[in-house]
Amino acid sequence: MEESQVTQNVPEPVEKAKGQELSQAYWSLVWWKFKKNKLAIVGGILILLFYTVCGLFPEFFAPYLVDYQSDHLESRPQPIVFKNIEGDFSLRPAVYGTTQELDLVARQRTWVVDESQIYPLSLFVKGQPYKLLGLIPGSIHLFGVNTEKYPEATMFLFGTDRVGRDMLSRILYGGRLSLLLGLVGQALTLVLGLVMGAISGYYGGTVDILVQRLVEFVGAFPDIPLFMALAAAIPVTWSPIAVYFMLTLILVFIRWGGLARQVRGLILTLREREYVLAAQSAGASDRRIMFRHLVPGTLSHVIVIATLMIPGMILSETALSWLGLGLRPPLTSWGVLLQEVSSVRVIRFAPWMLIPIPFIIVAVLAFNMLGDGLRDAMDPYGGR
Fold first, then answer.
1. For tag attachment on the chain, is the N or C end more exposed, with fewer CB atoms within 10 Å?
2. Sequence-distant (≥ 6) Cβ neighbours of residue 160 within 8 angstroms
3. pLDDT tens-digit profile of 204-235?
4. 6 vs 1, 11, 14, 39, 205, CA distance in Å?
5. How far is CA 298 from CA 201, 255, 283, 308, in A?
6. pTM (2 decimals)?
7. CA distance 182 to 57
8. Residue 329: CB partners within 8 Å, gap ≥ 6?
9. List of domains in the chain
């Protein structure tokens, strides 16, 4: 058989495969396996949305500024409807107006939805001025009611709180502090845990004993009493930013021990490898061996651990702020918003103020889905 005929009989997919170079690098395999996990992809997308909308640009996405107070005290949520001003069906969304009524049960005047008033919504409307990222001035919001055409109109999709502030805007602004505290706190925990775990696992002996006893000493204290003691030590005269960073350091002080222990166990398995012994025989310093050869070998595990620990940071801030031990007004976080609805009266007469809870749940679930996906992807040779 001639050579040309043999070439013609080769299947086309095989011929194409000959011209491709399939990467078998570890991170390429990790990414390939991660993409197969749909829940992890959804979690990653949700996290990106949270940090984009709440963390970076809440001024643009929020209809109002965080401290804007209207005269609509504890106004009910205004639902989105697809009707025009005449009341007929329309593809353009709109909101019902509100009117004030006397609530005989609560013995106060409240704002309720008035279906006789309909205000169409618009994209990229001009509203209250702000500074994007604290630097770029602007006044365009993603959506809202054209107040130049309807000056009496309001848009409180999630209602208002007891002083007339828009709940949707406060949730978006509050997510900035809660999410950034979890991210910054976990980054500092990662650094401290990596350093202490690497030192403990590499040197062993007396150093290992001292570090592990310190971890046990910190972990022996109950969380809530320890938080109460540390939070009480924060002077009341400190600025809100100083209180924010102090709370971050407190969370780092509490959480670093678990990560340090896991890094220590990984270092113990790596320090007897041939490449480490070769670096020692070549005269490399201890610092170079730890942070150039040993710590990079633990990063795949540490990334998964850190991703799964961020929700714990967010929940800790939320719980502490709800108890009055964490962030306090005028700062706004998800925990501060929940602290404002801790009374039975608010739950009874203004239940819409509990709306931050679903946002917290979705954020925590998104991090857990991403962390589970990373945990499976970091073992690309596994069966799952």
1. N
2. 70, 72, 73, 74, 75, 111, 166, 167
3. 889 999 999 999 988 887 777 777 777 777 77
4. 7, 10, 13, 46, 68
5. 12, 19, 23, 16
6. 0.85
7. 18
8. 336
9. 70-164 (no CATH), 170-377 (1.10.3720.10)
